[in-house]
Design a protein that fits this description.
- The complex is a heterodimer of chains A (388) and B (112).
- Chain A has 388 residues and is α+β, with helices and mostly antiparallel strands.
- Chain A has helices at 7-28, 40-52, 71-81, 109-120, 139-142, 241-272, 284-312, 318-342, 345-348, 354-364, 371-383, and strands at 126-129, 146-150, 154-165, 172-178, 187-193, 199-205, 214-225, 229-230, 274-275, 278-279.
- In chain A, the strands form 3 sheets. A 4-stranded mixed sheet of chain A has the order 1-4-5-8, with helices on one face.
- Chain B is an alpha+beta fold and 112 residues long.
- Chain B has one domain: GIY-YIG endonuclease, CATH 3.40.1440.
- Chain B has 3 helices and 4 strands.
- In chain B, a hairpin with a 5-residue loop joins strand 2 and strand 3.
- The chains are: A alpha+beta (388), B alpha+beta (112).
- Chains A and B meet through strand 6 of A and helix 3 of B.
- The structure holds flavin-adenine dinucleotide (FAD).
- Residues 128-131, 135-137, 163-165, 207, 209, 214, 363, 366-367, 369-370, 372-373, 376 of chain A line the site of flavin-adenine dinucleotide.
């Protein structure tokens, strides 16, 4: 595996790094440490800059107007973009645009007009409604929200969704509901508009993460037109599997970005902080923590770039993307934790970004499939289908 | 757990505010009729947390505040957003003194 950056990648990484250091980090001096957005005018100016770089719409495929970059380059950008306080969940305050709901690229032409394009232009916000109180790791079995056909043209949905990020501010979202029997083939994806009667966001779910907070949704006799089924009836899980595996790679890389910055801070601090008459960096106990950080970071970097490279080569990369998600979240969390420890009291104070990264990295080990579920996926691939 | 802030109202006076702690959290101000006129937050940039924020209102007091109540929470940002949305649900508008917020950019809760 040789991941030496080519000329174009070196130029892009350099450009994004400067953007983060010169445009994003200075903004954070005046923002609340838990802020997840900048004011509208500032956002517009930031977007002008990412457009000028040719990098707006990072996760939008080129045929829909996104930049024509490889997955390895996208991963390198993700590592850079997240290296600021809000960077884990709102890299660069979304100045690079976002096409988070990969499933919508599989929509019908009419659905694309109504839902996909406005989202890509930033005119409409969207949520992803899969998890329920009955469980998120194994939604194929856990989903209890029911959709019942009402005549030829409509479905009626009833149920509860839990942990759904940003539903209270979204214009529409994807709601997965059971239209058939047990298991995967019984689940259908519906595009649901949030101002339709029967769609109620009932509370904010307070977690360690203030950015992009989660909500609970109650769905009561919500009538959804048949034409709002995304993909096939009973094909809720079949849509966009490949795109979702792709999405997981930059998601993993963002964990790495935050951890790299935490480690750099720890190295710098250890060289200036003295205890018992010597710098922290001269103590073997601290050196070993830094060495462990370095090894965690290097191994995570190689594994996430390996997943990206396999994806670029058109090779199967589902296992690799699960490994990348697992290792980047677990190693990244350990790196942030050690870096906090080296900073002493300052590490846990809101004066520095470490405490926010620690809280948010903790969620990263659960969100988008907990670490144990990634292991389950990897085991399924290496042992065989018997674990399905 | 009720999602509304239903703690008892406290008299809005220098004496009671000076006794407060410097924790982070959210608070509500009310008029003499105990109608909420402002929903505020003491975030990590506030120097003396809830006490400091309420002391600022004591100095200003241009909105005829008679009572306040508060909730200490580290999740001050999400709790603030939630309290504003509950008010919006109840009254179809924001509290009178929350002037600089844009209703359109806020989320919608249906708290029943
Ligand atoms: C802040 C936040 C935001 C979120 N946003 C969204 C969103 O926008 N949309 C959405 O649909 N969901 C969202 N989620 C839900 C998230 O995807 C789920 O929390 C996650 O999938 C785990 O589901 P669960 O919480 O129900 O845990 P469970 O499924 O009950 O699992 C509990 C634990 O069991 C363990 N476990 C599970 N399976 C196995 C196994 N096979 N072997 C060993 N151990 C196992 C894991 O440690 C897991 O953490 C969000 C969650 C959080 C915390």
């Amino acid at each position: 595996m040789d991941f030496t950056l080519n000329e174009e990648q070196t130029m892009i990484v350099d450009m994004v790094r400067k953007f983060v250091q010169q445009e994003i980090i200075p903004l954070e001096k005046d923002l609340d440490p838990d802020a997840d957005e900048v004011d509208h005018d500032t956002y517009v100016k930031l977007v002008e800059k990412t457009k000028a770089m040719g990098l707006y719409g990072l996760d939008t495929p080129p045929e829909y107007g996104g930049p024509d970059i490889s997955m390895v380059t996208r991963t390198l950008i993700a590592i850079e973009c997240s290296q600021h306080r809000a960077g884990l969940y709102v890299p660069c305050y979304n100045a690079f645009g976002g096409a988070r709901q990969a499933q919508l690229f599989e929509a019908t032409d009419a659905q694309k007009e109504k839902y996909l394009y406005p989202m890509l232009k930033g005119e409409k916000k969207v949520f992803f409604g899969l998890s329920e109180p009955s469980g998120g790791s194994d939604p194929a079995r856990a989903i209890q929200t029911k959709a019942v056909r009402d005549g030829n043209d409509h479905w009626v949905l009833n149920g509860t969704k839990l942990w759904i990020s940003g539903a209270d501010r979204a214009d529409y979202g994807l709601v997965f509901a059971r239209t058939g029997g047990e298991g995967r083939s019984g689940v259908t994806a519906f595009i649901v508009e949030t101002d339709w009667p029967g769609f109620n966001v009932t509370r904010v779910v307070h977690t360690l993460r203030s950015a992009k907070y989660a909500t609970e949704i109650h769905i009561e006799n919500l009538r959804v037109p048949h034409e709002n089924i995304l993909g096939e009836e009973g094909g809720g899980f079949a849509i966009a599997n490949d795109r979702l595996a792709r999405q997981r790679v930059p998601y993993a890389a963002e964990c790495l970005g935050v951890a790299i910055r935490a480690h750099e801070m720890a190295v710098e601090y250890s060289k200036i902080r003295e205890t018992f008459g010597a710098t922290l960096s001269s103590r073997q106990g601290i050196q070993w923590m830094l060495v462990e950080n370095e090894i965690d970071l290097r191994s995570a970097r190689l594994l996430v770039l390996d997943a990206a490279a396999k994806c670029d080569k058109g090779l199967p990369f589902r296992t690799e993307s699960a490994i990348a998600k697992l290792v980047c979240a677990e190693n990244g969390f350990r790196v942030v934790d050690r870096s906090m420890q080296i900073h002493g009291g300052l590490g846990v104070a809101k004066d520095l970004p470490l405490e926010r990264w620690f809280r948010e990295m903790r969620i990263r080990r659960i969100g988008e499939g907990p670490s144990e579920v990634q292991k389950h996926v990897i085991a399924r691939d290496i042992i065989g289908a018997s674990l399905r | 757990m009720s999602i509304r802030l239903d703690k008892p109202w406290i008299e809005f006076s220098k004496q009671s505010i000076d006794r407060l702690t410097g924790h982070l959290g959210v608070y509500q101000l009310a008029n003499a009729g105990k109608e909420i006129i402002y929903i505020g937050v003491a975030g990590a940039r506030s120097r003396f947390g809830l006490r400091g924020e309420l002391q600022k209102w004591l100095e200003l007091d241009d909105i005829a505040t008679s009572f306040f109540r508060l909730e200490v929470t580290m999740a001050y940002k999400t709790r603030h957003a939630e309290l504003l949305q509950i008010f919006l649900y109840d009254f179809k508008r924001l509290p009178l003194a929350n002037k600089n917020l844009n209703v359109k950019s806020m989320g919608r809760l249906n708290v029943g």
